[in-house]
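Internal QA ticket QA-208
Title: Verify multi-chain structure generation after dependency bump
Assignee: T.L.

Test input:
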Amino acid sequence: MASIEFRGVSKRYDDGPATVPGLDLEIGDGEFMVLVGPSGCGKSTVLRMIAGLESITSGDLLIGGHRVNELPPKDRDIAMVFQNYALYPHMSVFENMAFGLRVRNFPKLGIERRVRDAAETLGLSDLLERKPGQLSGGQCQRVALGRAMVRDPQVFLFDEPLSNLDAELRVQMRAVIHRLHRQLGTTSVYVTHDQVEAMTLGTRIAILNRGALMQVGTPLELYNDPDNTFVAGFMGSPPMNLVPVTNDGTQLVCDLLAFYHPRAPHSQLQGLKRELLLGLRPEKLVYAASAPANWPRLKGEIELVESLGAEMLVHLRAGETSVIARLPGLRAFTLGDALELAFDPAAVYLFDADSQQRIRKDGARAGVGVC
Amino acid sequence: MLRSAHFLRLFLLLLMCAGQANAGEILNLWHGYRGAERAAFEQLIDDYNRGQSDIQVKALAVPFGGYADKLSAALPRGQGPDLFVFAHDRLGGWASAGHTVAPIDHYVGDGVLRRFPPNLIAAMTFGGELYGLPLAFKSPALILNTDLVRTAPASTDAMVAEARRHTDRKAGRFGLAYSYTEPFFHGALMNSFGAGPFDRGGNLDLDNRANIESVEMLVRWVRDERILPDEPSSTLVTSLFNQGRAAMVISGPWMLGEIAPGVNYRVVPLPINSQSGLPLAPWVAVEGLFLSPWSKNPAAAVAVMDYLTSRSAAEKMGIQGGQLPANISAFEHPRIATDDTAMAFRRQLEVAVPIPNLPAMTLVWVPLENALKKVVKGAAQPEAEMHQLQRQLSVDLARLERSRTRGNIPAQMPAWLWLVPLALVLLALWAWRRYRKPLAAGWQANRTAYLYVLPAMLGMLVLVFFPLLYGLLLSFTDTTVFNEYTPLWSRFVGLDNYAAILGDFHLWRGQGSDRSIDFDNFYWTLLITILWTASNVTLAVGLALVLALALDKPIFGRSGFRLILILPWAIPNYITALVWKGMFHPQFGVINQALQVLGLAPVAWFDSIGASFVTGLVTNVWLSIPFMMVVILGGLQSIPRELYEVARVEGAGRWFQFRAITLPLLKPVLIPAVILSVVWTFNMFNVIYLVSDGAPAGANDILITKAFRIGFEKYQYAYAAAYSMVILALLFCYALWQMRLSRTLEVAR
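Actual output:
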C-alpha cells in the first residue's frame, strides 16, 4: 500500500489548452479517493497519469514517496479496472484473472490459489471456466475486479467501473467494492461522474472541473460546506438551489422572497456586493404553516411536482426565479397554485455572484451558514 | 457508339441483300484482314461484283481474336460462309474432323495451279487432296542493320562470325537476335538439316538425327558462341533492333512496320547451313482461300477463288495491301519487282517449307518450345531431350488418335442411356410429391424474396451450374479436338480419365542418367500447387501483418504509406504480373541489374525450379499483400485499446501483448481472409501463366495452369475437364475442413 501525491502536475495534449492545468493533491495510504466531476473535466486523465498510461507534461507524481513520472506502468505496482471491463474475450475467467500473474511468471500453484481465493471472495468460483461472452455485465466487472485483486497491488485504480451496469447492479457492485476496500485496505482511486457513488464509496472526494481541483474533503464536508457554487451544485440530488438575489444593504431580495437576516448586523450585509447567490438545500425548505414564525418565508407558484413516494420534489417559481423543495409525504397540489414555504436562516449559504466563491463569516471554513 | 454503327452497317447489309435478291446468287466470304489489306481486298470484291451479275460476293471481316473458333463452331453445323480466308496450318485438323472444308480438285485446272510455287500448293493439300488456293505467304528472313552489317552472310558460319563481332553482352549488344526457342523460327534450322517434325508418312519423327543436329547447332549458338540474347521475346527482338543493339534479326514481314524510322535495314534470304550445305529453310505460313462443304454453288465459289488469286488481283493485294502474293507472277510487276524487301521474301520463299498442316502439328508447338528452352539453358542434352519429347508426344498423339478412331465408329446410342432421362424424370416426380407442400408454402410466404433472388439464380444457373455440369459430363468422355462433333455417348469412357490422373504414380521417367521427374505427373503438380499455396499464404499474411502493425501505430506519413501499399490492388493483376516478368528478365530485368550493381551474380530466374518458383511467389505475394493488409488493419482497429492498457498495467511486454491479445483477437478476421487467400492462390492462373509460365518445362505449373495446357495446348478437352473436377473436389474438401475448423473455433469463442 502506498500514498499518492500530485505536485503541480499538468497535462497538455499537443498545442491545445492544458487538460489538467496544475494539480496538487495528496491521497493517503489506504484511502479511498473518489475523483468526481462532469464529463471532460480531466478526472480520467488524472487516473491514467497515475497508471502511467498518460505521460505527465510537468510537475511530479509520487507513489509511496517515489517519483514515478518516467516509470512504465508495469513497474508502478498498480491495478486498473476499466469502464468496459477490458476482459480478454478469448480467455476464460480463470485465464483473465490469472493474466497479470502469468505475465509476471508466478508459479502455477500460486496462481491457482490466488485466483481461486479472489473468485471465492467475488462469488465467481462457478464461472471460472466460462468465457466473458457468456457472462452478465455485473459478472464481467467482478472478473475485472478479480484480475486487479489477485496481484495484491499497492494501488487500485477504477475508471468509472459501474457506468455500464444497470441501476440495481450498480448498487450491488458498489457494496462489493466497498467491502473489498474494507477488507484489503488498499489505496484506491476511483473516477466517476456519479455523485451518489462518490458519496457512498469515498473516504474523501476530490471534485474536478475543467482540470482544476474545486474542493477536496470527506463526503459530508463537501455536502455541508461547499467552497463554491460548483461543489454546491454538484453534490446532492436534486442539487442545492442557487437563487440570484440583490443585496440592498438591509435585506436580500428576489422575486421569490425578501430575506431580512435577523442575525446579520446591517454592517455585514453592507460590506457585501450588491449581486449575490443564495444557496439553499431543497430539504431545508418546509411548509410555512409548520415552521417557526421567525423563519423567512418564500412564496411562489407551483410549476411541477415530482412524486418520489415517501417525499416529493416541488418546483416553485416566481418571476425569473425558481427553487426546488423536497417536502415530506403526499399532498395533492394543483399546478399554478401559490405555495408558501419557510426555511431556517441558519441553513443559508451565500456565494459571490461573480467569482462563484462562498462568502464565509470571518473566513471560517467550518460551521454552517454565513451569517 | 461502335456497336450502333455495327448494327447500322448490318441493317444496310440486310437492305442490300433484299435489294439484290434477284440480282444473282450470293456467296458469303469471311476474312480476318484489317487496315490496308482489308481495303484492298474489299476493293477487289467490289470490282468482282460489278464485273458480272450472276454472283454477288459478300465479304465479312471477322475480328481476328475469335475467328478460328467461329469457323470451327459454325462450319461443322452447316452455317458460316461459302468461302473463307485462313492460314493453312489448321487445314489438317479441319479436313480430318470433316464437315469444315471441301476439296476443290474437281474445279481447278492446271492453269490455275501453275500460278503458285509447288510448296504453296503443298500447303493447301492434305491427304492428297487440294482444299484451297493460296492467297499470300509469310515467312521469316534475315533482316540486317545496314549501318552495322553491309553484306549478307552467305553461310551460317559467316553469319555467326559476323554476329560474334557485333556481340558485347555486357553492353547489351548482340550480333543476332530472334525468338529462337519458338518452333516457328527454329523451323529454319530444322528444315536445313533435311528433316522436320514428321516423316514422309506423316508420323511424328522429332528425334531423328537431323532434328537433333539442328538443336545442337542452336545450343552452340546460344551457349558457346553466345551471340544471342536470353529469353528472346518478339518485343525484345524488335526493341534491340530499333536501338541498334542487334546487328541482324530473323523475323518476317510483320516486323517491318515496327522498325523505327531512323534504322537502316535490308532484308535478305537466310544463309546456307555450313554444316549440311543446304539453305536455312524457314517455315512459311500460307494464307489460303478455302471452300465450305456446305456451299450451294461450289463451282461459283471456286470461280471467285480463281479471280482473287489472278495476277491482277495479286498485284493489287501486293501493291495496295502490302501482301506478299502467292501468285508469284505478281512479282514481275514493276512496282513489286523494284521493291528489294518484297523480292527478298520472294527469294526466301523458294527454299521455304510450309508449316506442316497435319492435325498433330498443333500438339508440337508448345512441348517443342519447352524442350528448346530447356536445352538452350543447359538443363538437358539435345539428344536426350528430343528422344524424351518424341516419347511424350507419341503418348499424347496416341490418346488423340484413340479418340479419333472411336469417333469414326458410328455409335448407336446405348439402350441403357435412356434410363438416365427416365431416372431424372422419376426423381423430379418424387421430389415434387415430397416437397410440393413446403415449396408452395414457402412461395406463398416469401414471394417477394424469391422474386428478388430469381435473377441471380438464373445468372448462376447459366454461368456457373450449367458449365459445371457440362464439365462434369465431359470428364466422363474422351473428347478431344478430333472427335468433339461426334455424339456425346459415343465418347463415353466412364472413369478412365480420373483413373489416368489419379492412378499415375510414375513420378520418374527415363532411365539411368536420363532419369528425371515427370513434371506432367498429377502428384508433382499437386505438390507444387500445395507448396505454392502454402508459401504464398504464409508470406502474404506474415508480411501484411507486419505492415498492418506498423501502419496501426500513429507513425509519420501513415496515410501516404497506406495509399502506396494499397495501390497494387488497383492495378489489374495481369499487368502487375507482366511488369514483374519484365523485371525478372535474366539480361535486361531490373532485378538482375540491381544484383550486378551490388556485386552479386545475376540469377537465371526461369532456369531452375527454385528460382522460377520464387518469381511467381514474389509476384503473387506482392499482389496479395494489399488485400490482406486492409483486412488485418480493420481487425487491428477493432481491438479495444483498453485490452492493451490492461496488459501494460499488468506488466506484459510487446511480444506478450502480440501473442496473448493481438493474434487471438485477429483470428476472426484472419481465418476468413486465409480461406479466401488459399482458394485464390490455389487457382491463381494469371501469375503462373504470365510470369514463370511453368518454367522450367512445366515444373512450376500449378493444377489450374496444367488443366489449361491439357485442354488448350494438347487439345484433350475431356482429360482437362476431369483435371478441373479433381481441382474442384480438392478445394471442396479444403472448404469443408476449413468450415469445420472455424466452427469449432466459433464454439470455443
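Spot checks passed. Chain B touches chain A through 18 residues (CB under 8 Å).
Status: verified.
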